[in-house]
Amino acid sequence: MGNLSFDFTGRVALVTGAANGIGKVVAEYLAAAGARLVLVDRSEAVHELAESLPTQVLSRVQDVTDEAAVIATLQATRQRFGGLDILVNNAGIGPLDAAETMSSELWDQTQAVNLRGVFLFCREAGKTMLERGEGRIVNLASQAASVGLAGHLAYCTSKAGVLGLTRTLALEWGPRGITVNAVSPTVVETELGRYGWAGDKGERMKALIPTRRFAQPEEIVAAILYLASREAAMVNGADLRIDGGYTAI
Ligand SMILES: NC(=O)c1ccc[n+]([C@@H]2O[C@H](COP(=O)([O-])OP(=O)(O)OC[C@H]3O[C@@H](n4cnc5c(N)ncnc54)[C@H](O)[C@@H]3O)[C@@H](O)[C@H]2O)c1
User: Fold this and answer.
1) Ligand 1: does its nearest atom lie under 6 Å from the Cβ of 91?
2) Which of 53, 166, 205, 206 is deepest in the core (most CB within 10 A)?
3) Residue 249 — pLDDT band, cuts 50, 70, 90?
């Protein structure tokens, strides 16, 4: 592990989609920095991760779109840890299809995981954070929130929604001690990134990114940790793009 040094001693952080990819690396760094964790994923592998971390962890296997399960997870979080300081809405899916053949099921599922799930966790975590008058929420958006990507219609739409949600919550909850921000990566070297950008398509994409490469999970985690830290108290409603300059063009 590299040196991404913010102090999260004693803080309680909930990470969704924690079993793989960016979420797993966030969990590892938060644990190493002293946070206590609530790890959520639809995959059972989240339990294995929980056991490997050097901190107190509550791991929950659930779908982020399931409202009752989200409410139950926040209740369990309060019972176990007394409250919640940090929420990282990271779970997401990135299916591919041409617009003219995309099924309504694929569309609905993408909006449900990438947008409804974020809304549900924000609403339920927000209630707890508002009681204390303090909190940090970091939502995983994407460069796809700000530019169109052919073949990624449902994904781009959902991530644009994440930015709208982030900005609006920042206005509603900023005065009450909670900051709400987004990070927007370019393609990241994870399962989701490799699926969406395999082969020639990926090489063409790299050629359009000014830094000429995809991102590593740690490069996204560095920004998430900053936005989750006490030091970022004045950053609110931001969309921090970690895209090698792709959207600067
Ligand atoms: N990898 C990229 O290229 C990239 C680029 C920009 C943004 N992002 C965003 O970053 C976030 C993390 O992506 P990643 O690359 O680490 O993905 P990943 O596929 O490697 O991991 C995603 C995790 O989320 C979990 N998950 C998916 N749907 C779920 C659901 N309904 N309920 C509970 N858990 C669920 C999966 O089981 C998995 O563990 C996503 O929101 C993604 O859209 C990724």
Assistant:
1) yes
2) 166
3) confident
| 203, part of any domain | yes
The encoded tokens of residue 82 equal 């007394």
- Predicted confidence (pLDDT) per residue in 33-46, tens digit: 999 999 999 999 99
Q: Identify the residue whose C-alpha is closest to ligand 1 atom 7.
A: 142
Question: Rounded to the nearest 5°, which phi and psi values hold at 152?
Answer: -120, 40
Query: For position 47, what pLDDT does the model report?
Result: 98
Q: What does the block give as tokens for 222? A: 């560095």
For residue 46, the CA-to-ligand 1 centroid distance in Å is 13
- C-alpha to C-alpha distance for 21 and 220, rounded to whole angstroms: 11
**pLDDT single digits (tens) 183-193:** 999 999 999 99
CATH number of residue 34's parent domain: 3.40.50.720
Both structure tokens of 49: 């991760």
The structure's pTM equals 0.98
- In the chain, the number of structural domains is 1
Identify the domain containing residue 136 by its residue range.
12-248
Q: How far is CA 137 from CA 8, 14, 20, in A?
A: 14, 10, 20
Instruction: For residue 175, report the distance from its CA to the centre of ligand 1, in Å.
Output: 30
Q: Which atom of ligand 1 is nearest to the CA of 185?
A: 6
When pLDDT is cut at 50, 70 and 90, the band that residue 108 belongs to is: very high
Is 195 among the residues known to form the active site? no
Task: From the CA of 191, give the closest atom in ligand 1.
Answer: 20
Q: Is 5 part of any domain?
A: no
